[in-house]
Amino acid sequence: MAPLGGRVSSGRWRLALAAGLLLLSVPGQGANLYQLSSHWVDDTSHALQLSRFRGSVSVVSMAYGACTRICSTTLRRLEQLQQLADARGLDLQFVLVGLDPRTDTPEAWRSYRRSHHLERSNWTFLSGDPGATRLVASLLGIDYWLYDDHVLHDFGIALVGPDGEIRRRMHWQDERLEGFLEGVPARGPAAVLGAH
User: Fold this and answer.
1) Which of 27, 35, 80, 172 has the highest CB neighbour count under 10 A?
2) For residue 173, which phi and psi values (nearest 5 degrees)?
3) Neighbours of 19 (CB within 10 A)
4) CATH code of the domain in which 171 resides
């Protein structure tokens, strides 16, 4: 088993992971995705940083486009969360980060989006480099590894407040959805979720 992204000789992903974990160790700081300086490309080939989602409540997860088990379960739960948000009048962003930078390219995500009928504008699919991917996985609490030519990974979905702080995590596909979205305000300003 080898880490994704090939050889680790440069240690760049380790440095990125250490920097991200340092953010978590600062007193008063939680897991904050919007403070990461990593760069991503979305499924429309536009470059962005996660801070683009600042001001919005987001549901964030990771997937491997060629996955046939965990990712399909994750996608099903995300779709159920979208349905629940619609029923409650909640304005959420859904962000899916690719686990395998080698294959989860903008072109592959566009095809994935079409084949799974995920054309809504509040869904974003991201591709990044191996170090950035590892760092986001670490912050979300999602372990993954390469086994032969496949990516094996944990199930995990996070609810991220408008400030980038992770408010809630779902680690099991059988967890109740209703409580996961508790406290998310109806359409309009999202800043009240988890205000300190």
Assistant:
1) 35
2) -65, -15
3) 14
4) 3.40.30.10
